[in-house]
Write a structure and sequence with these properties.
Strand order of the largest sheet: 2-8-7-6-5-3-4
Shape: globular
Largest sheet: 7 strands, mixed
Mean pLDDT: 94
Low-confidence stretches: none
Strand content: 5-15%
Structural class: alpha/beta
């Protein structure tokens, strides 16, 4: 038997694009925080999970589908789910592509589209995988900063898009700020993106923002445009299926869908996840209740934190981006002592910010109290 090589032996095999990559930060481990904490329970606010859970129809759909489904491979095309999404959004099902979460589709897009040296434009602060996946492929990434008020900077976007990107990642609402682009601002990005580039509109949190009259539906904005585009959405957030990992994209044309099919693993969305997503998509009442409750708590918690003297970015999502005025790593560690997990933001220029998703009203009250007490005793 050949001996297992030492780590040093494998290090020389790793692609140079991978060596310097930052790791994705999922937030602190709840078990480790529970062991460290003085609190009796852990309140996890780091991953934008829904405290309302999925539709009651989901459990029944998974139960019925699991009678023999666990022993069989799922439909690799996810036909029943793509048909349901197509009907729901009034798009041809052959322009719908499924992913193991929408971030799986971000990865597939980079695999299918990018060559070493290509330029990718995205926003800052932003979702780390909008930078990591392009860099895996050897692409260059330019991050367009928000304004001082976390708004859209038209001049900065104009300069970045004029540089000739091959791929543009735009999250609306923005992760981590929760801010939205208005219809006019979205149109400026669409109009400014070269027709030779693929425009990727990431709407992972779109369900929470849709009741806002200032929020543009990306699919409606791009539908019928004679250019390459894809709108990404997910069942992880408002639909409460984070643990099952189901995302989807609606593409400008079937050629893009076929390209993504060629670079994905054939069974990237498992059978129970497909069954659950079909059931969740059909329960409009549960989705509406989740969105209403989330928006109510987002506004209430933001008001409470502002009243305590903290800067909170206006959010149309299920999370808040909060300037603590102190190193965010230090604040996050202190919150761990109270059993609370938030995401300390480490992107340059935003190291005093934390991102906290919303939970139940009771959990949110504990968070507000602990954060304000921590900031009061921690020196800036």
């Amino acid at each position: 038997m050949n001996p297992v090589p030492a780590p040093a032996a494998s290090a020389s095999l790793i692609r140079r694009e991978v060596v310097g990559l930052p790791g994705y930060d999922p937030g602190a481990d709840p078990d480790e925080v529970a062991a460290f904490s003085r609190a009796g329970r852990v309140i996890k606010l780091s991953n934008s999970e829904s405290p309302y859970g999925p539709s009651p129809a989901v459990a029944e759909a998974v139960r019925l589908g699991s009678a023999d489904g666990f022993a069989r491979y799922p439909d690799p095309a996810g036909k029943r789910l793509t048909d349901a999404i197509g009907t729901h959004l009034d798009v041809p099902a052959d322009r719908v592509v499924l992913g193991n979460g929408s971030e799986n589709l971000l990865e597939l897009l980079c695999r299918a589209v990018l060559d070493p040296g290509d330029l990718v434009v995205t926003q800052a602060p932003g979702f780390s995988l909008h930078e990591i996946f392009p860099r895996v492929m050897g692409a260059r990434v330019e991050k367009v900063p928000v304004t001082a008020e976390f708004g859209f900077g038209p001049e900065a976007w104009h300069r970045a898009l004029a540089a000739g990107p091959k791929l543009v990642f735009l999250a609306n609402p923005c992760n981590p700020t929760g801010a939205i682009l208005t219809p006019g601002e979205l149109e400026r990005v669409v109009a400014g993106t070269p027709e030779s580039a693929l425009l990727v509109l990431d709407e992972a949190y779109g369900e929470f923002a849709r009741p806002d009259p200032a929020y543009p539906d990306g699919l409606e904005a791009l539908r019928g445009r004679d250019r390459p585009w894809i709108v990404l959405r997910t069942f992880s957030k408002a639909y409460g299926l984070a643990g099952l990992r189901v995302g989807y994209g609606i593409a400008s044309d079937t050629a893009l869908v076929r390209a993504l099919d060629r670079v994905r693993t054939p069974y990237n969305v498992n059978g129970p996840a497909q069954d659950a997503a079909v059931a969740a998509l059909g329960d409009h009442e549960h989705l509406a209740d989740t969105v209403r409750g989330t928006r109510r708590e987002t506004a209430r918690v933001a008001d409470a934190l502002r009243a305590a003297g903290l800067r909170v970015v206006p959010s149309s999502t299920n999370f808040l981006f909060i300037d603590t005025g102190r190193p965010s790593d230090r604040i996050a560690r202190e919150l761990h002592r109270a059993g609370i997990i938030v995401k300390a933001w480490r992107e340059p220029g935003y190291e005093t910010y934390i991102r906290a998703s919303l939970s139940t009203p009771g959990d949110n009250d504990v968070f507000v109290r602990c954060l304000t007490e921590t900031c009061a005793k921690e020196q800036p």
